[in-house]
Write a structure and sequence with these properties.
This protein has 17 helices and no strands. It is mainly alpha-helical. The two termini are 40 Å apart. The protein has 3 domains: 70 residues, Serine Threonine Protein Phosphatase 5, Tetratricopeptide repeat, CATH 1.25.40; 76 residues, Tetratricopeptide repeat domain (Serine Threonine Protein Phosphatase 5, Tetratricopeptide repeat), CATH 1.25.40; 115 residues, Serine Threonine Protein Phosphatase 5, Tetratricopeptide repeat (Alpha Horseshoe), CATH 1.25.40. The radius of gyration is 25 Å and the shape is elongated.
């Protein structure tokens, strides 16, 4: 099968890929490759569909494509992304560096290079690449998310909060983005930390999760020694807490406000650990939802 018939199969593969019909696109691309094995565009398409389908041979297709067309920055970027997905971070960095050398202002390649550098533990490099990406595209949420993570890991919390706030503004329904802003505000001791956690009640529409927002607000008030405000919030939290996670929190606050009345209250350290676990659980639930 050559000529028009092969071209038609390649077109079908591209159309199926665009429609999200990855299994169909993969089959058409492989059939077309039988007669056009040296077509870099077809090889890259086969690689993209293999990645979407979770197949093991995506890297091989991209490697064949860049061997045939070594001056194509898109091919190197896609190879880098596939290698990073496989956890081959050093090789991914090399491929993405090649893409950026070929096209220095390639925002997508800079973002991928920044994220792979961060995953490899090279935080300074990650910040450099991600800042370049943001300079090219100030609204690029992937770049800003990576910057927030890199800055936070470096202890540069003000810069992390700035990046996280921009992510949350650009994606107002993203619970993880709102939670990142709230947690950074808490770490920085900002007076608006409680309000930042309160916004989670608007962003997260799962009624089972409302208690997490209350716990965040309580934690912010406790850090400010605002025991009366924390008491009001703890009482409200018990009304939506179906698993009893607020019991010890309320007991400590009541004891601090009214006295222990002959019954020993939970320690503050225990309550702080409980609140930290609550935040971690909220983050875990939404992170897992993204994977699914």
């Amino acid at each position: 099968m050559t000529g028009p018939a092969s071209d038609q199969l390649a077109d079908e593969a591209r159309a199926s890929y665009q429609a999200g019909e990855y299994r169909k696109a993969w089959a058409a691309a492989l059939t077309a490759l039988e007669t056009r094995p040296h077509d870099p565009a077809l090889l890259r398409l086969a690689g993209r569909t293999a990645m979407e389908l979770g197949l093991d041979d995506a890297v091989e297709y991209f490697q064949r494509a860049v061997a045939l067309d070594p001056n194509d920055p898109d091919g190197w970027r896609e190879l880098g992304d596939a290698l990073a997905y496989d956890g081959r971070l050093a090789e991914a960095g090399q491929a993405l560096h090649r893409a950026v050398r070929l096209r220095p202002e390639d925002t997508a390649a800079l973002v991928s290079l920044g994220h792979s550098s961060l995953a490899a533990g090279h935080r300074d490099r990650a910040i450099t690449y991600l800042r370049r990406a943001v300079e090219n595209d100030p609204e690029n949420l992937m770049a800003l998310q990576g910057l927030a993570a890199a800055y936070r890991s470096e202890g540069r919390l003000e810069e992390a909060l700035d990046a996280a706030t921009r992510v949350a503004s650009g994606s107002p329904t993203d619970v993880l983005a709102a939670l990142e802003v709230a947690e950074l505000s808490l770490e920085l001791g900002r007076t608006d930390a409680a309000a930042a956690f309160g916004r989670l009640r608007e962003v997260d529409d799962d009624p089972e999760h409302e208690v997490y927002a209350y716990h965040g607000m309580i934690e912010a008030e406790l850090r400010r020694e605002s025991w009366r405000r924390a008491l009001d919030l703890a009482v409200d939290a018990t009304r939506v807490d179906r698993h009893g996670g607020t019991t010890d929190i309320l007991a400590l606050i009541v004891a601090r406000v009214f006295g222990e009345a002959g019954r020993e209250a939970p320690s503050r350290e225990h309550v702080e650990e409980t609140l930290a676990r609550s935040r971690a659980e909220h983050r875990r639930l939404h992170a897992e939802a993204l994977v699914v």
